[in-house]
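A reminder from the course coordinator: this example appears on the midterm review sheet, so study it carefully.

Given structure:
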C-alpha cells in the first residue's frame, strides 16, 4: 500500500516520526510519505527509525493562499531538503502562523470563549508547527468542544467568523519552488468542500503551467462526486492521480492506508522528480 500524506508531532499529528514509521509497518504500508505542515523537522527521526521493507518519501504540506483568498494545501514530495529557498519559504510560512493564531484567539475571546495563547502552547507538542488543530485541542481541553472534528466543522472552519488567513505563498509560487528544489507537487484535498471555499475546475490549468504534477483524488474529505470531478480534471490535464490517508494519529479519524495510490501512478510521479530520493534500507 502506498500512502503519500501523513503527519507527525512536528506539525499537528499525534505520532512522533518514529511512531509513524512503526504504525506504517504494522499496517502493511509499503511506501509512506511524511508531510508535516510547512516543516521538514521530522525527516531525520523518520529516516533513523526506518526498517523492514518500508520505503519513505520525504516531503511537506505547504499552506497556500490564492489571490482570491482560497486556502490551498500543496504537497511537496521528493524535494532536496537542503535547498535554501525552499527552507526559507517554509520558515516564512511557519512564522506567519503566530500572529494569525493571536488574531483567532482574540476573535474567540470577543465572542466570550475564554481561550489563551498559553492554552494553545500547552496543547502543542514542543517543536511542532503551530496550527488550528492545536487551537482545537486547547478548546477541547477547556471543555468548549468535544473534538478536533467538531472544531473544524464549526468554530474553526474556513468559513467561520473566527477564521483568519495567514501569510502564505500562492499555489503557483509553492509549485514553482517545489519543482526548483527538484521535487514534485501534488495538490491536496482540492475539492474538500466541507472545509470551506474550494478551487474550481478552471483553476487547475494555471497550476499545471506552474508545474503541478498530481492531484490527490482519493481522500476521506472528498465525496464520490468530488473524486470523479477530480479524476476528469486529472485525465484532461494529464496529471498523476494519488490517494492518501492524511493521517494525523489520534488527532483525526483518518486511518493509515484508508486511501492509497496506485503503484503505476506512484511510479509515474516519482519519475518526475529530478533525483531518486525515496529512502530505503
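Designed residues:
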Amino acid at each position: 500500500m502506498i500512502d503519500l500524506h501523513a503527519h507527525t508531532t512536528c506539525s499537528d499529528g499525534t505520532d512522533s516520526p518514529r511512531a509513524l514509521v512503526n504504525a506504517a509497518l504494522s499496517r502493511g504500508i509499503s511506501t509512506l510519505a511524511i508531510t508535516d505542515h510547512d516543516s521538514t523537522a521530522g525527516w531525520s527521526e523518520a529516516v533513523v527509525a526506518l526498517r523492514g521493507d518500508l520505503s519513505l518519501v520525504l516531503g511537506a504540506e505547504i499552506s497556500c493562499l490564492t489571490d482570491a483568498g482560497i486556502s490551498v494545501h500543496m504537497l511537496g514530495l521528493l524535494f532536496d531538503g537542503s535547498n535554501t529557498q525552499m527552507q526559507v519559504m517554509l520558515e516564512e510560512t511557519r512564522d506567519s502562523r503566530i500572529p494569525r493564531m493571536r488574531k483567532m484567539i482574540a476573535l474567540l475571546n470577543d465572542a466570550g470563549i475564554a481561550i489563551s495563547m498559553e492554552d494553545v502552547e500547552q496543547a502543542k507538542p514542543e517543536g511542532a508547527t503551530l496550527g488550528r488543530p492545536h487551537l482545537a485541542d486547547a478548546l477541547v481541553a477547556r471543555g468548549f468542544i468535544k473534538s478536533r472534528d467538531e472544531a473544524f466543522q464549526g468554530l474553526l472552519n474556513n468559513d467561520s467568523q473566527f477564521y483568519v488567513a495567514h501569510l502564505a505563498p500562492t499555489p503557483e509560487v509553492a509549485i514553482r519552488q517545489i519543482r526548483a528544489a527538484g521535487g514534485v507537487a501534488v495538490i491536496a484535498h482540492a475539492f474538500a468542500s466541507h472545509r470551506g471555499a474550494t478551487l474550481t475546475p478552471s483553476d487547475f490549468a494555471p497550476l499545471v503551467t506552474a508545474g503541478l504534477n498530481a492531484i490527490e483524488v482519493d481522500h476521506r474529505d472528498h465525496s464520490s462526486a468530488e473524486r470523479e470531478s477530480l479524476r476528469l480534471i486529472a485525465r484532461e490535464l494529464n496529471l498523476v492521480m494519488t490517494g492518501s490517508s492524511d493521517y494525523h494519529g489520534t488527532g483525526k479519524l483518518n486511518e493509515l492506508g484508508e486511501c492509497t495510490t496506485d503503484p503505476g501512478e506512484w511510479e509515474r510521479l516519482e519519475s518526475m522528480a529530478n533525483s531518486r530520493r525515496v529512502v530505503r534500507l
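The two ends are 18 Å apart (CA to CA). The domain at 2-95+167-270 is CATH 3.20.20.140 (TIM Barrel).
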